[in-house]
Design brief:
The chain is an alpha/beta fold. The protein folds into two domains: about 35 residues, no CATH class; about 130 residues, Spore Coat Polysaccharide Biosynthesis Protein SpsA, Chain A (Alpha-Beta Complex). The longest helix has 13 residues. The chain is globular, with a radius of gyration of 16 Å.
Length: about 180
């Protein structure tokens, strides 16, 4: 089952994807009005997700990550497992450090959070349904407490969060 947290253009997304049957998947929606930020939206969708760890990925990234491998991963003693990538030109300072498999908040040697993670529902325990909350705040707190693991993904990853980057990726893919 796929759960889509939708706010901006949610009606249009739902109109195109429907219940997912045409793609061989089951899609359920967690609408937001107003937008709740990432952690708030995830907390709002928790009743649809259940008690098991789940993968969440930003809709505006393109990558060749093995999501099946991420789904099979165990969280162990952590609340989150983050996929980190080399810093792209538009985000050269990065977000988190990675020492072994532990994510940290130091300022040197940072990598960029890819917008992809495996999360325990417990990470969102302090966020009330319907409340705005930023995922970065929860992840930094978990990292500070040693409760975030991570991996350095070196495969293909593109943040297509602007029309220009989306156009460049579309052009590249059309040329293949």
């Amino acid at each position: 089952m796929k759960i889509l947290k939708i706010d901006h253009l949610g009606v249009a997304i739902e109109a195109v994807l429907g219940d997912g049957a045409q793609f061989g998947v089951s899609i359920r929606y967690s609408p937001e009005a107003p937008a709740l930020e990432t952690a708030g939206g995830i907390a709002n969708a928790l009743p649809l997700l259940g008690n098991a760890p789940f993968v969440a990925a930003n809709a505006d990234v393109f990558c060749d990550l093995d999501f099946a491998g991420l789904v099979r991963r165990a969280l162990g003693d952590t609340l989150a497992h983050l996929v980190l990538v080399d810093n792209p030109p538009h985000h050269s300072i990065g977000d988190f450090t990675l020492t072994g498999d532990r994510v940290g908040n130091a300022s040197d040697g940072r990598l960029t959070f890819a917008g992809i993670g495996l999360y325990s529902p417990a990470l969102f325990a302090g966020v009330r349904r319907g409340e705005k909350a930023q995922l970065a705040t929860l992840l930094r707190d978990a990292a500070a407490k040693g409760l975030a693991s991570g991996e350095h993904f070196r495969g293909r990853w593109v943040d297509v969060g602007t029309p220009e980057r989306l156009a460049a990726l579309n052009e590249e893919l059309a040329g293949r």
